[in-house]
């Protein structure tokens, strides 16, 4: 009973912060206390922050209709088709925060037009290491893909985070055969319809605490429904060379003033800088900013972070 009251209070606080947001109408009011996601169902036709992602030559079509987010695998990708593996086709939600020791519950549903399997995880954007995968509470024990039946599938799961992930994603991988993936996840032309996605932090939702103490709860001002600008850090895929200029591009679908960015090594910031906006790039079809981190000159693997977007790269090459 006590817990219930506390939840109600937190819920009304969240509602208040939604009203303060200029796009309050876009935020699903079904957001419950403890909700860590920006979108739970797709009843109002809004998919974001959920989105699909493919790696060439994989291809997906999607539409948000009938209250579900429907992803059709046009080309699964995978090694034999010139792609890589199951991660060539993805459906995912980024900008999540996971806090060490917090307890989470998960629910997700998918309707599949064909049986198959997929990989799902909550992990850093690099996909390396994480806190939950394939409905397993233990990352290390979750390597087996989730089997998906033709028709309706529902899953419930929970986990306690072993570590804090400042920026995490919940991703589904269902592309073609390749490393770690002996066969295509689904036949070509399979449609996966996702619905009722829930990631709730019981720890954050269980007490009356200020927003700063509920780090996992979705902040409606963070990424805003349909008007969310798409953004992306684009790096040199082959890495960077010692002594040479090192630049990445930050691309957004809407014009943005100069952003701050951070280059991290093993989670520690080694360089911070400001983007240099160069306006709309016709070839890229985006507004672009140049992120110059030429002074980072020690070989290693780094992450570059802009707001909620990050990308891992090998830098610099020693040759
Ligand atoms: Zn939490």
Structure, explained:
- With 319 residues, this protein is mainly beta.
- The protein folds into two domains: 2-226, Sandwich (Jelly Rolls); 231-315, Sandwich (Immunoglobulin-like), CATH 2.60.40.10.
- Helices cover 7% and strands 42% of the residues.
- The protein is built from two helices and 19 strands.
- It has helices at residues 2-20, 202-205; strands at residues 51-54, 59-65, 68-75, 89-98, 103-112, 116-124, 132-133, 146-148, 151-160, 165-173, 191-201, 231-234, 247-252, 260-265, 268-274, 276-281, 286-292, 300-306, 309-315.
- The strands form four sheets. Strands 1, 4, 6, 7, 8 and 10 form a six-stranded antiparallel beta sheet that branches.
- The longest helix is centred in the N-terminal third of the chain and has 19 residues, at 2-20.
- The chain is globular, with a radius of gyration of 20 Å.
- Mean pLDDT is 80; it is low at 1-32, 223-229 and 314-319.
- Zinc ion (ZN) binds next to α2.
